[in-house]
């Protein structure tokens, strides 16, 4: 049935992780209401906003890395994860 | 803080179901395509990030994106001021107001491809009135001159979508209480001062929505160039979406098209988020202050 979607393992992992992230955030948000605050991005965000921003920033950074740097994908991923973590923590 | 009843969120479930079929499942498929060279469901090859390297280093694609950006910015620079100007001079009440609203919204209710065909015929220099008259003034041929092709698509977009800006701004203007105008009149404010200090601040929200909608629509423009110029002359009007369709449907290169779509989607996401943030920033700050 799912054959036409030509699933690959990496994509499946990414989407399952994204769903778990959303479900997790929902449950977390239900028990601990997120605090709205202002970080170095100078915009007021709550937990979900920061997750979204870091997710998108990570994707954008990876595209830029692929466009500008030839190879060294693991190094790029590492920097991207650090960047996302910084936004998540202090953004 | 007041406790909120979040159960209403369950009412969103039907939408999620619909969206998962129209957007989420296709998106997953596209993500799968983007990592593989697919010949058929049984005959495919995992190629990793190859398509992404291809796409980001392909001048054809980078040019198409630049063209789309350029087009969007030009469309906005024309449509937003023009929309405000038209909305300001439109009649404010009575049958004239209704008539003006109907007249203005006509382009919005015509199907896209009909608009394309109409303008295609209208602009031809042999049988079209517009093209014929323009040729009296200067040499106009949108099928061979890239500048004419670009100008024609831009004109069609302005004709088609300025009414949306007009309607939004008109609604915004109508919601400004008369007291502001009366106060301005007592102070002897000029027409420009009224616009600058009364109307513009009150229109901020409406204008941002107009900006967001118009930017997105013009960035993803497809039907008009497809019908009128087909991306030509040369590649003068091959915008990002036209090129994407050529790769996906024309060449049936689904792997490359998948990677292309994901990058396109990411760009749209980023720009929507920026617009959304700007749109809601003030409310959020007020919300944080009251807490």
Structural account:
The complex is a heterodimer of chains A (91) and B (291). Chain A is flat. In chain A, strands 1-2 form a two-stranded antiparallel sheet. In chain A, helix 2 (47-68) runs antiparallel to helix 3 (73-90). Helices cover 69% and strands 4% of the residues of chain A. Chain A has 91 residues and is mainly α. Chain A has three helices and two strands. Chain A has two domains: 1-33; 36-91. The mean pLDDT of chain A is 86. Chain A starts with 8 loop residues before the first helix and ends with a helix. With 291 residues, chain B is mostly helical. Chain B has a single domain (44-290), classed as MetI-like (MetI-like fold). Helices cover 75% and strands 2% of the residues of chain B. Chain B contains twelve helices and two strands; from the N terminus they run αββααααααααααα. Chain B has helices spanning 13-33, 50-56, 59-89, 94-109, 112-123, 129-137, 146-174, 178-186, 191-219, 223-228, 240-250, 254-290; strands spanning 36-38, 44-46. Chain B has a two-stranded antiparallel sheet. In chain B, a hairpin with a 5-residue loop joins strand 1 and strand 2. In chain B, helix 3 (59-89) runs antiparallel to helix 9 (191-219) and helix 4 runs antiparallel to helix 7 (146-174). The model of chain B has no long low-confidence stretch (mean pLDDT 87). Classes of the chains: A mainly alpha (91), B mainly alpha (291). Chains A and B meet through helix 1, strand 1 and helix 2 of A and helix 1, helix 2 and helix 12 of B.
